[in-house]
Design a protein that fits this description.
This protein is mostly beta strands. It folds into 2 domains: about 180 residues, 2-Layer Sandwich (Gyrase A, domain 2), CATH 3.30.1360; about 110 residues, Elongation Factor Tu (Ef-tu), domain 3 (Beta Barrel). Helices cover about 15% and strands about 35% of the residues. A 6-stranded antiparallel barrel has the order 11-14-13-12-15-16. Strands 1-7-10-9-8 form a 5-stranded antiparallel sheet. Strands 3-4-5-2-6 form a 5-stranded antiparallel sheet. The chain is globular and about 55 Å long.
């Protein structure tokens, strides 16, 4: 990999994001149906805004994470990890019942691209984080900057014309995604985490006043009864990490202390990863990837604050 990502230009350009898929929920009851399924307030999501949202099991564990936005009065776009799209669409469709709503996997007709750097702001006419703007057949979704690099998503029909921008290394995009501190649930981590374990409520993925959805009681109890004993943190390591890989603590080699959520290569220095870990293990000893004698994990600062939480 060398030092390619060490240059400023490494974070400038556009890249096809094959790891993302687009689901479309449409129909007269689409908003109310999604309102009863997701962790986000979909009914009051205005045109022009995008938001994180989660889809939980009855036990409050995240089956998937979405970026959701209103594509029309009765239509919503839901971006999720591509390796979950088929299962998630099928599960959502099972619960539609008599609601006037249909959930389709539109991935074959729509492509998702990531844009980073100053050219992003010019191409997208300065789209801001968590806004969704339609421009012809294209949708521009603003994301929070990572490492002070502006980012956005472009969602458009497969045959659509792309803006003239340099190509962006997919590894550079993955690095920025991890450094943003915003988790993306994949097949390797589905049903592993209550939203708070991956800081989902801290990055705007949970609305606590919206009403019921699968797992809502578990999520609310974790929030208001102080039962959060695990949190996601940012780490650096010389090893190569994968989502779903276990993390171990030096003082307890027999039991995993956490799990990798997302990971990406870093320029000439191993990788950066988001990992959910027991809060109690952060006070002493060391964390390692894969086993207690695996590559050492060095904790880094997230771009947002995690409030004090009891370790016991």
């Amino acid at each position: 990999m060398g030092d390619k990502l060490a240059t400023t230009n490494a974070f400038e350009g556009i890249v096809r994001l094959s790891e993302w898929a687009l689901l479309r929920a449409h129909g007269a009851d689409a908003a109310t149906f999604l309102q009863g399924q997701l962790t986000q307030d979909v009914v009051d999501l205005p045109l022009g805004r995008a938001s994180l949202s989660g889809y939980c099991s009855a036990k409050g564990r995240l089956l998937a994470s979405f970026i959701v936005w209103r594509m029309g009065p009765d239509e919503f776009g839901l971006l999720c990890s591509a390796d979950l799209a088929v299962a998630v669409r099928k599960r959502l469709s099972m619960y539609v019942l008599r609601a006037r709503c249909r959930v389709d996997d539109a991935s074959a007709e729509w492509s998702v691209f990531g844009l980073a750097g100053a050219a992003t702001q010019r191409a997208s006419e300065g789209v801001h984080p968590w806004t969704a703007r339609q421009q012809g057949v294209q949708w521009w979704i603003g994301l929070p900057a990572a490492e002070q690099v502006p980012r956005c998503l472009l969602v458009q029909p497969v045959a659509g014309q792309l803006p003239t921008l340099p190509g962006l290394d997919a590894r550079a995009w993955g690095f920025l995604e991890v450094m943003s501190g915003v988790p993306r649930i994949t097949a390797a981590t589905a049903e592993q985490f209550v939203p708070q374990m991956v800081n989902f409520e801290l990055v705007g993925g949970v609305h606590f006043q919206k009403g019921c959805y699968p797992g809502q009681e578990v999520v609310a109890r974790s929030q208001y009864r102080g039962t959060i004993k695990r949190r996601m943190h940012l780490f650096a390591t010389n090893g190569s990490a994968q989502p779903g890989q276990e993390v171990f603590h030096s003082d307890d080699p027999a039991q995993p202390a956490g799990m990798v959520v997302n990971a990406a290569e870093a320029a000439g220095s191993g990788c950066r990863l988001l990992a959910e870990v027991k809060l109690a293990v952060l006070d002493s000893g060391s964390l390692h990837l894969g086993s207690a004698d695996g590559p050492l994990l060095q904790r880094l600062a997230l771009p947002y604050l995690i409030a004090d939480v009891a370790h016991a």
